[in-house]
Amino acid sequence: MKLGVCYYPEHWPEEIWADDAARMKALGLTTVRIGEFAWSRIEPEPGRFEWEWLDRAVDTLSGAGMQIIMGTPTATPPKWLIDAYPDVLAKDAHGRVRNFGSRRHYSFSSTTYRRESARIVEAMAQRYGLHPGIVMWQTDNEYGCHDTVESNDDDARAGFRVWLKERYGDVGSLNTAWGTVFWSQEYRSFDEIDPPLATVTEPTPAHVMDWRRFSSDQVAVYNQMQVDVLRQNIGAVDTTHNFMGHFTEFDHYPVAAQVNVSTWDSYPLGFLEMAWWDDQTKLNHMRTGHPDFAAFHHDLYRGMARAGRFGVMEQQPGPVNWAGFNPAPLDGMVRLWSLEAVAHGAELVSYFRWRQAPFAQEQMHAGLNRPDNVADQAYHEAAQVAEDLAALGDIGNAEQADIALVYDYEAHWAHEIQPQSRNFRHDRLTFSFYSALRRLGVNVDVISQHHALDGYKLVLVPSSPMISESFVERAKKSDAHIVAGPRTGSRTENFAIPEALAPGPLQTLMGIKVALAESLRAGAEHAPSGGDDIIWREFIETDLTPLEVSSDGNGTVWQNADLTYLSAWPTEETLIGLVSDLYDGTPIVSKPIEGGLRIRRRGGYIYCLNYGPEAADLDSVLDGSLAGRYVLGSSLLKAGELAVLTAK
Ligand code: GAL
Fold it and tell me: Within a 10 A sphere around the Cβ of 359, how many other Cβ atoms?
């Protein structure tokens, strides 16, 4: 387990680098990420490289004992490159150029940019690949940030046509698959097909799905190119990419499979502000972040990572600059967020950034140090985390959980493409499943539907319209009981209703058929277990008797030995009840948690973290037969406090 920091030597006078490096080391940090936005300093003119400053920065940092994570600088192509090759720039839905002047100004499909990126990555790999101080390479920075996955430029349009031809072979098959006869959308050749952008009203859903798949594939192709160049020049070297929180525009699973370590950038307060929670929840957690948000992403990125190797590349240290409101964290939260990552199996927590920059876009973004170089709150908390890790000693590995939650990017896209309700949000539903599990104190793995199911006792699928037959086959062979939420199995791969109707392939596990689905305004129908309103429900044709019914007698939960199907939007209470009945593993809690306390087990330790707003008493929550000795903290936790105990 390493602690690290993000650092930009090019932003600071060279005279202070050595002091910075020495202070990083003294603080207990071991890694430092550099380089990811430095292209204009590395190659100030086409083909003229200025390596010396970066050589000295690398030597200074590694000389002080810091291990370097080197970022490839491709998120910020310099001005001369854009002027020489304007086709690098992405275009918006209307075909208007997205200009130079900030960052991420390129199209993933641009053949010119792929060539230029390979060139700069190769130059860096040749210069630094064998430097003993460099332990890992980060490709680019936050793929897709600032809405940059899709681009309506010429290379993307041409690439999309080739991609479609490879997928469908002949245009007749495409017309059938997409259902283009509807509204006279039929194509005579692949050359006639444009991206489904800026249309008068809703474009053909299968067309949009394929465009999103294509755009997502472009990210993977681009990343693979960088990884290949690094490996060809350096050999077996650790690579990573820093993914984001709550980012769904491209399928992360294939990209994660290309790199050795999946890392992500965790900004709990910024994300809370930008997410779907109501104002009261946002007020309750404005200084702590939502209790399940970072945790979900740790589980997601660990689940997709090769050999489970994951970490946090950027950890929020104080107020950020980019959300609607940017409060300061409650004292203790930087420490708590760091220990949450540890509890989930992270191998790295790296703080963003070493020192607040007094200039440019992020001057209102805190760092470990203030612009005047005085240590800020997060600096002291990072030091505390280093001490905590020393006190914990051997933290053990993150083992496979008993329970898996299925999360697929295509599922998210399907819900966005045809929501059928203003309130049906895939992320919101996924989180209510996840929060229910967290309130039961169980460990969760987040996996894709293509993942092996062996070893799981319970597999929850909040809502995956395009569930595959192969998933159902694997489910049958495994011992897992499947819980599937509404709309699962409601679409084919080509975005059509399955011949046998929903829930499609799940019908081989249970004899049910969705005869009709409706979406409801909040307040129209209540769940029998209380809590949320039913905002979605399906009318089921079957001989089975429902396990639960809504107030008007319509079945909402159906169950047999293999499957539980939820034909209505479930409340968190319904989910807690179901999982408690179905799960026969050892719970850490004696009753479902109320409030912001969260608990996770890793190795021999139980981590208890209070996201508030109320204080929590662990004696009344933890199962006494499991809780051992306190290594950190005690049984009474105020908001923002944590405790770590040995597990008996
Ligand atoms: C991340 C990004 C960093 C920095 C940070 C500010 O999204 O990777 O470069 O901008 O946000 O919070």
Answer: 8
Q: Is 541 a catalytic residue?
A: no
Q: Are 326 and 317 in contact (CB under 8 A)?
A: no
52 is catalytic: no
Choice from 362, 363, 364, 368 to test ligand 1 binding pocket (greatest atom count within 8 A of CB): 362
Q: How far is the CA of 106 from the centre of ligand 1 (A)?
A: 17
Q: Which residues contact 10 (CB under 8 A, 6 or more apart)?
A: 38, 41, 53, 57
Stated pTM of the model: 0.98
The chain-wide mean pLDDT, for the chain, equals 96
pLDDT-derived band at 197 (thresholds 50, 70, 90) equals very high
36, 150, 249, 314: which is the annotated catalytic residue?
Answer: 314
Length of the chain: 648
* Residue 28: pLDDT band with limits 50, 70, 90: very high
Domains observed in the chain? 2-148+236-392 (3.20.20.80), 403-582 (3.40.50.880), 597-646 (2.60.40.1180)
Average pLDDT rounded to a whole number, residues 118-136: 98
**Residues in contact with ligand 1 (CB, 6 Å cut-off):** 141-142, 145, 265, 267, 314, 320, 352, 362, 365
Higher per-residue confidence, 532 vs 34: 34
Q: What percent of the chain has pLDDT over 70?
A: 99
Q: What pLDDT is recorded for position 588?
A: 77
Long-range contacts of 555-563, Cβ-Cβ distance < 8 Å, separation of 24 or more: 556/527, 556/528, 558/510, 558/512, 560/509, 560/510, 561/481, 562/475, 562/476, 562/481, 562/482, 562/509, 562/510, 563/481, 563/482, 563/483, 563/484, 563/506, 563/509, 563/510
User: Measured on CA atoms in the order 240, 241, 246, 250, is the torsion positive or negative?
Assistant: negative
Distance CA 246, CA 314 (A): 15
